[in-house]
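Re-running the complex after MR caught last week's input typo. The corrected sequence lines follow. Everything else is unchanged.
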Amino acid sequence: MVHVNSALLAGHALGQDDALDAADQEHLASCSHCRAELDQYRRVVTLGQGTQASETPTPPLDRIWRSIQAELAPTSATEGIAATKTMVADSVPPVTANDSPASDVPGGDEAENDKPVSVVAASDETTDAGGEKPIAGRRRKWWPIVAAAAALGLVVGAGATVIINRNDVQVAASTALSALPGHTGHGTAELLRTPNDPELRVSVDGPQPADPPSYREVWLINSDGQRMYSLGVLPESGTGTYPLPTLLANGLDGFTIVDVSIEPYDGNPAHSRNSQVRGSLPE
Amino acid sequence: MRARRVDWRNASDSDLAAGFADGDDSCLEESFKRWGSLIYTIAYRALDSSSEAEDVTQQVFVGAWQGRTSYQESKGSLPGWLLGIARHRIADRQRARARDLKVVRAATSQANVKVESQPLVTLIDRLVLVEEIQRLPHPRGTILRMAFWEGQSYSQIAERLQLPLGTVKSHARRALRQLRVRLEEVTSWST
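Corrected-run output:
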């Protein structure tokens, strides 16, 4: 049996009307081999025709590559990819693109600057939170696992459960806090294990709205979306440390979402439903 | 660590994969150059967030490098493997996002949600294809783009490109076959 020429099948799949003559059509009707080949071409054509113009931004490849290098940088002399550390950097000025302040835009879904420091583990230089941006030359940048609704500007850093020792205070978990739509600012929340009670240290870098007069309040929201604890008022400095309810001492029991709300001076103890930043601690 | 530094720029995907699995770190860089953009693009289109796309891309290459000893060429190409990892990372995020949206909606009613409807596997196939079409050399790529996206007939294409009709047909056929093979090769891990 003589199969239909592949060129003709391809032409047919591309919608070239004159590709197949009557004999070819007849053969095709009875030959599963040729039909299978045609189907494969058709699949390519269908996929290809359905996808065209892409609004994808130019990938920030240099920055991503530096992050990869940083993450794979050796923690001891025997592992990692030390030899490659400067490969890209050789051709690129050593300016960290991360320092760009461009994304501090209300409602922006990027929150690029809002998401460093998920886990501070293994970083000897103690960052005192504060939504600190990655610093040029710093060896480790922690790009958190951001499992978040970008449409909401919600960035949930799933920090690891690595426990590190910071004097006698251990950071058991941490997360980046990111601005919600219509808000700016970012920060970090760290779950601290102390010799006494567990504490949550929250640090928000970003303006407190001045008009109308308001203050900020820190909340722990349960992942069931139904329950929340108010931990207290966030000082105007943007940094506060809050003892946790005792029952949360050995596990957050679902109260993993750290939320900072903007509260009017109305004496109403309920959440204003107007949140500035938010993040999520690992369970 | 290899002391010897090989120029991988012209290496085949297969040789590159072997070097990668062997722990030659310059293969990691070359792989990133070849497929970093593709993976970022897929992640971006799937997640609609440049920061998440960056994170996914980083995770894919870090994860692949750390897990390089588990790569087996018999199971698929290196880009296919990378795409398979990407697919999992993206799917993780989509699941987490769906979960978080529920939570946030319930907690504060601030939701204004965009729903991702295109199945991830289809999306990956599509974007792999677009990437491959863009990589086709002239005139093959041009011919295919005209036939695919502009709906031109072979004779129109031949006229516009000043090429013999037979040449246009043969390029279109080869291009289509090439894409078909590439798609299978690259997406075999993702299925």
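None of the earlier attempt is carried over here. The radius of gyration of chain A is 27 Å. Residues 163 and 208 of chain A are 32 Å apart (CA to CA).
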